[in-house]
Structures are given as structure tokens and as C-alpha cells.
């Protein structure tokens, strides 16, 4: 992921907030936990079957949808004009900036690309519900807490997007995957815009958010493994 780090380093230079660089470096150093996570380890080595991968990704549709709602809520809750603008721009990107390419829409296209046959999405698993509850709690916390959580999640998603985009491209030999391709670059500024507004770093919130997000993927992986093994019997 050296190329990802290079893009981030160049992007960080454009931001003046005193907390951007130390948080970015801290999160980069934590990415070994991501690479060693069982789900991402299998993607990086191209060992996961595409059918099982779909079982991991389909329920994540609900997390994508919830993220847009969380951004919208923050637009109306935030009283600081500069920070409100950060939420607004993020929300506009989530909505597709006025066209029909909202992130919910591109994620649905992506699911169909990797093999989803149904027009409806599976029920929410407990892991997704837990993540949604974490976002709900975050939305109602002080501004600084929200900036930490959203900035951290967007930062992690830079790396996740690169990993998933490369895996899908290798599996189905196509460049038609646009959802994660877009996010792998868009989320650099999404993350740094949040981190740029932080005045005092709370490392505990950053580490907790990182671990909660990683746990979400671990639980989705475990669930998909059970479903995939059942289908293969």
C-alpha cells in the first residue's frame, strides 16, 4: 500500500490543521492490524471465493445507507459553519452531487457486478445493527467526538477501498467496478477535511473507532463463512 501512503502524504501537505499529520501517521501505522485481519488477509492474497465475498459485502449495503443518513443528521446538528460545510460536502458526495450516482446506487451496482441476483438486500445482521447504533451515538456526541469518529472511518476506508477494488478487478477481470474505485481517492479528502477541524487529539476515540470498524468486517466474514460452507454442503 505504498502508493496509498504516497497519495495521503501529498494530500496532508494541503491541510493546515495541527492535528492532521499526527493522526494520519498514527492511522497509517495501525494499518498492519487491517492487513492481518482475516477478511482482508484473504482478499490481499486472492484466496477468498467470490461467492463468499458477496456474502460479506451484501449486508454492508445497510452501513453505506446509514453513513449518508449520519452525514445528513450532522449537517442539521452542527452549529459551527466551517464544520457544517465539511458535513455538507460529504453528504453531497454521498448523494451523488445531484446525479443518479449516489453511493447507495453505486454500491448496489457493485453488488450486482460481483454476483447479486436478487433486487432486494438481505436482512441486517447483528454486526451491522451494532455499527448503526455506534453511528447514532456518535451523531449525538460533541463536535470533537464526531470529527474523530468520522475522520477515522473515512481514513480506514481509503485502504479498504483500494484492497476491495483490486480484489474485485482480479477476480472478475474488469474495470467496471466504480464504487470502491471512487472511494479509494474521494475518501482521502473526506477524511482529512474532518481531521483538519480537530483542535485536540483524543487517541482513545481514534483507536476505539478503528477497532470497532475492524470488528464489523470480522463479524461479517465469520457470518459469510458459515453461510458459504452451508451452501457448499
Tell me what you see in this structure.
With 233 residues, the chain is an all-alpha fold. It has one domain (2-232): Heme Oxygenase, Chain A, CATH 1.20.910. The protein is 76% helix and 0% strand. It has helices spanning 2-12, 20-35, 38-44, 50-57, 60-77, 81-94, 103-113, 126-139, 143-172, 179-195, 203-232. α2 (20-35) runs parallel beside α11 and α9 packs antiparallel against α10 (179-195). The longest helix has 30 residues, at 143-172. The radius of gyration is 17 Å and the shape is globular. The chain starts with a helix and ends with a helix. The relative contact order is 0.18. The model has no long low-confidence stretch (mean pLDDT 89).
CATH superfamily caption: Heme oxygenase-like
- Average pLDDT number: 89
Fraction of residues in helices?
Answer: over 70%
Radius of gyration, in angstroms, nearest whole number:
17 Å
Task: Tell me the number of helical segments per DSSP (H or I, 4 or more residues long).
Answer: 11
What is the terminal separation in angstroms? 37 Å
- Percent range for β-strand residues: under 5%
Number of domains: 1
Stretches where pLDDT falls below 50 for ≥5 residues? none
- CATH architecture grouping: Up-down Bundle
> Which sequence of SSEs, written as H and E, runs from N to C?
HHHHHHHHHHH
**SS elements, strand count:** 0
Query: What does the overall shape look like?
Result: globular
What profile does the largest beta sheet have? none
Instruction: Enter the CATH topology name.
Output: Heme Oxygenase, Chain A
Structural class: mainly alpha
- The CATH class assignment is Mainly Alpha
